[in-house]
């Protein structure tokens, strides 16, 4: 197994902030989502993006990944550089999968990085279990924490309910209750699900073709015509549970944001109620300039231009 450069996978620099990483993931995930992109290799690319985001999108995992990245690039590093502590005596480094790598003297790093395939094995233990279970390192005391990820759609989170999930490491299928309103990155705990051990599932919500989510609020862009923006109109707006009609007032400017209360995602605090309270739906209007203008339409627009003498760019250059 070769080293996986998650920064390269997302097309970001190593020093990129979390917002840049999340933005890059959302953009690429939309492009390669299997429901949208049917080209060969798109599904594998989508999985690669998810794996990269699961590591780089988590501050703790990213910090550990960066340490391993440096170790790999430099062909192995002293113990105190890798662990950030003195190399004398026995030290332990907890991996994100819940296992612990224990090393003694500095020379013990050869057991991790020195032999052929050593780094790949170590890297696989740390991050190869994403989407499956992180493997427990040899010599670890006690059972490892069983972790996996579950990808759900926005519709799954909106409705909630039970889903069958197959654990990649074992092929075992478990029934999972998806809580209504659960957020990306939150964890679902399945008590005693595998051999009496708890299973922790990190929720990853796939990008949606229409909605962007911020906490329990949703944002959707709705195109309107030039005349609808100028004269006002009633337009249909999509919501997670169907369409509603919204009034666009006259003289609406492009990019204006309308707030529709109670049409967003269910609040987690209202789980269990028959009608949970919900966040807001923000509608951003996009004014679409007509194309294929007829001769008559051009004449009317020319008349409008002559009748309207204001300069919207006044003050930009004074």
Describe how the helices and strands are arranged:
Blueprint: H1 6-10, H2 18-32, H3 42-56, H4 59-73, H5 79-83, E1 91-94, E2 100-103, H6 109-114, H7 118-128, E3 146-152, H8 154-159, E4 161-166, E5 173-178, E6 187-194, E7 197-205, E8 211-214, E9 217-225, H9 226-231, E10 233-239, E11 242-248, E12 257-260, E13 281-288, H10 295-307
Helix pairs in contact: 2-3
Provide an overview of this structure.
With 318 residues, the protein is α+β, with helices and mostly antiparallel strands. The protein folds into 3 domains: 6-128, DnaJ domain (Helix Hairpins, Orthogonal Bundle), CATH 1.10.287.110; 146-205, Urease metallochaperone UreE, N-terminal domain (HSP40/DNAj peptide-binding domain); 211-305, Sandwich (HSP40/DNAj peptide-binding domain). The protein is 31% helix and 26% strand. The chain has 10 helices and 13 strands. It has helices at residues 6-10, 18-32, 42-56, 59-73, 79-83, 109-114, 118-128, 154-159, 226-231, 295-307; strands at residues 91-94, 100-103, 146-152, 161-166, 173-178, 187-194, 197-205, 211-214, 217-225, 233-239, 242-248, 257-260, 281-288. The strands form 5 sheets. A 4-stranded mixed sheet has the order 8-9-13-12. Strands 3-7-6 form a 3-stranded mixed sheet. A two-stranded antiparallel sheet has the order 1-2. Strand 4 (161-166) and strand 5 form a beta hairpin. The chain is globular, with a radius of gyration of 26 Å. Residues 77-143 have low confidence and may be disordered.
């Amino acid at each position: 197994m070769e080293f996986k450069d998650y920064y390269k996978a997302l097309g970001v620099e190593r020093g990129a902030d979390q917002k840049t990483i999340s933005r890059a993931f959302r953009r690429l995930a939309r492009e390669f989502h299997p429901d949208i992109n049917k080209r060969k290799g798109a599904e594998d690319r989508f999985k690669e993006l998810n794996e990269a985001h699961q590591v780089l999108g988590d501050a703790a995992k990213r910090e550990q990944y960066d340490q391993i990245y440096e170790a790999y690039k430099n062909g192995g590093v002293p113990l105190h550089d890798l662990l950030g502590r003195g190399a004398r005596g026995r030290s332990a480094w907890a991996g994100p999968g819940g296992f612990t790598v224990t090393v003694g003297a500095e020379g013990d790093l050869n057991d991790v990085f020195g032999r052929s395939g050593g780094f790949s094995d170590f890297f696989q233990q740390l991050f190869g279990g994403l989407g499956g279970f992180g493997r427990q390192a040899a010599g670890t005391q006690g059972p490892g924490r069983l972790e996996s990820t579950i990808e759900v759609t926005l519709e799954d989170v909106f409705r909630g309910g039970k889903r069958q999930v197959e654990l990649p490491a074992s092929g075992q299928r478990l029934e999972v209750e998806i809580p209504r309103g659960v957020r990306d990155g939150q964890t679902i705990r399945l008590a005693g699900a595998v051999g009496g051990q708890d299973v922790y599932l990190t929720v990853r919500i796939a990008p949606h073709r229409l909605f962007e989510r911020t906490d329990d609020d949703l944002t959707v862009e709705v195109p309107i015509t030039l005349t609808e923006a100028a004269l006002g109109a009633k337009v249909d707006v999509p919501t997670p549970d169907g369409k509603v009609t919204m009034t666009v007032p006259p003289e609406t400017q492009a990019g204006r944001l309308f707030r529709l209360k109670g049409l967003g995602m269910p609040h987690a605090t209202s789980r269990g109620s028959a009608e949970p309270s919900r966040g807001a739906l923000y509608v951003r209007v996009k004014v679409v300039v007509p194309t294929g203008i007829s001769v008559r339409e051009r004449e009317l627009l020319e008349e409008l231009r002559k009748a309207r003498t204001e300069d919207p760019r006044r003050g930009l250059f004074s």
